[in-house]
């Protein structure tokens, strides 16, 4: 399972009436078409229901991406000689890894912020009560933070000792702070079911989470508990933090992920299903051949018995004719 960067997708959380039932597919498809009508291009989409609200409405997580982006991603993977089974969204894959590594993540009343920091951008997922409340992208990346940190450390004020190390980190983190605040405001404006509640924990992942003073800088800026999460990949893996999103994609491949939106093209899904059924078809072919051999053996044995019986009957008739 490969990942699509979250910033090239559109993730929506919509609430539908509980009486939707079998009509939920049609209702989600109608809303997806409304979102897609804003552009002339073709989209791929998928959705997943989440635990209902207290009012009974059913929240639905909808993922949408341009077909051209998906086809380009799939063709690049195919040219590299890698068999593609599915395409997941990177930010949701990171959230799946967090849910698996720390099962309590996103299950409490206080929302948790799950931030995967990459080189050029970051993904943000807000989760609480077993639901995804918001999913978006941030323009903050590890490369920009490193540049800002280097520039601030090279200023005369920093060299003179007037800047403490923690203050330098907080100054370099201003873009991330502003973007996280804007994302929280956007989520609270859109979400009429949760309201304004205090943030529980900020969970960081990705290679950017290991940059100097990033965790302490966020902790000093926000009054949140800030942690770094990483899968347990054994002693041979020196830096498992950079593989957190890949771990989430692996969970989706094994059908062990809480969130499993699939944006793979139909042909890719069909090929993957065919590869999964190859072993079953081979086993079925072997069993069919064994059944044919057994059938032919039984018929041959039956014919041999009949031939022996007829030979004895013929011998008896010959003796009668002699008498």
Keywords for this entry:
323 residues; alpha/beta; 3-stranded antiparallel β-sheet; 11 helices; 10 strands; 19% strand
How many whole angstroms does the radius of gyration measure? 30 Å
Q: Would you tell me the structural class of the helices and strands?
A: alpha/beta
Number of helices: 11
What fraction strand? 15-25%
Main β sheet profile: 5 strands, mixed
Number of beta-strand segments: 10
Distance between the termini: 86 Å
What is the spatial order of strands in the main beta sheet? 8-7-6-9-10
Mean pLDDT: 82
Q: Helix coverage percent of residues?
A: 40-55%
- Low-confidence runs of at least 5 consecutive residues: none
Question: Which geometry do the CA atoms define?
Answer: elongated
- Written as H for each helix and E for each strand, in order along the chain, the element string is EEHEEHEHEEEHHHHEHEHHH
Q: Care to describe what's here?
A:
By secondary structure, this protein is α/β, with parallel strands linked by helices. The N and C termini lie far apart (86 Å). It has eleven helices and ten strands. The strands form three sheets. A five-stranded mixed sheet has the order 8-7-6-9-10, with helices on both faces. It has a three-stranded antiparallel sheet with strand order 2-4-3.
């Amino acid at each position: 399972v490969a990942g699509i960067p979250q910033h090239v997708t559109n993730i929506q959380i919509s609430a539908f009436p509980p009486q939707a039932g079998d009509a939920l597919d049609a209702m989600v498809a109608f809303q997806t078409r409304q979102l897609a009508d804003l552009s002339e291009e073709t989209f791929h989409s998928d959705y997943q229901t989440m635990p209902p609200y207290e009012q009974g409405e059913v929240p639905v997580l909808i993922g949408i991406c341009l077909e051209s982006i998906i086809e380009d991603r799939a063709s690049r993977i195919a040219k590299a000689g890698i068999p593609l089974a599915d395409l997941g969204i990177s930010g949701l894959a990171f959230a799946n890894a967090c849910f698996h590594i720390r099962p309590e993540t996103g299950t409490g009343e206080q929302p948790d912020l799950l931030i995967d920091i990459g080189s050029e951008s970051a993904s943000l997922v807000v989760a609480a009560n077993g639901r995804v409340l918001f999913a978006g992208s941030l323009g903050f990346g590890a490369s920009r933070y490193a540049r800002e940190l280097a520039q601030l450390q090279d200023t005369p004020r920093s060299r003179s000792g007037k800047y403490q190390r923690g203050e330098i980190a907080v100054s370099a983190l201003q873009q991330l702070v502003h973007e996280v605040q804007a994302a929280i405001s956007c989520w609270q404006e859109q979400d009429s079911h949760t309201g304004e509640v205090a943030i529980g924990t900020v969970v960081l992942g990705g290679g950017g989470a290991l940059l100097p003073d990033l965790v302490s800088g966020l902790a000093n800026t926000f009054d949140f508990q800030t942690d770094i999460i990483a899968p347990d990949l054994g002693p041979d893996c020196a830096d498992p933090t950079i593989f957190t999103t890949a771990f989430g994609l692996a969970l989706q491949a094994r059908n062990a992920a809480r969130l499993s939106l699939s944006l793979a093209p139909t042909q890719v899904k069909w090929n993957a299903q065919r590869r999964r059924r190859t072993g079953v078809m081979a086993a079925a072919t072997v069993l069919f051949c064994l059944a044919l051999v057994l059938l032919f053996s039984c018929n041959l044995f039956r014919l041999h018995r009949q031939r022996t019986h007829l030979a004895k009957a013929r011998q008896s008739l010959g003796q009668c004719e002699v008498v």
